[in-house]
Amino acid sequence: MTTPHATSQPPAVNHRVLAMLRAVDAGRAQLTCSAEPDLFVDGMPCCDQFTAHVLAHEGLVRPGQPGTPGQRVPAVLTTAGRALVTGAQAAA
Description:
single chain; alpha+beta; five-stranded antiparallel beta sheet; 3 helices; 5 strands
């Protein structure tokens, strides 16, 4: 098993990625504590878990607190995730 790590290139930023990051920024999202963290928005599973995994593995979102495997915890933006959201807002 390999350890997830951030790469030098963030994922392609599209409307879905930005919506997911904005939901995390607004405090509406949770992550499961897992090697492949699932994202929940407003209590519902996110429709694109592949992208949710990429956001976590690329270091754009992270659990806001420790938890046991499978437990849902608040999701928070990392500095890199916040920079993507802020950059998208500035470009709009």
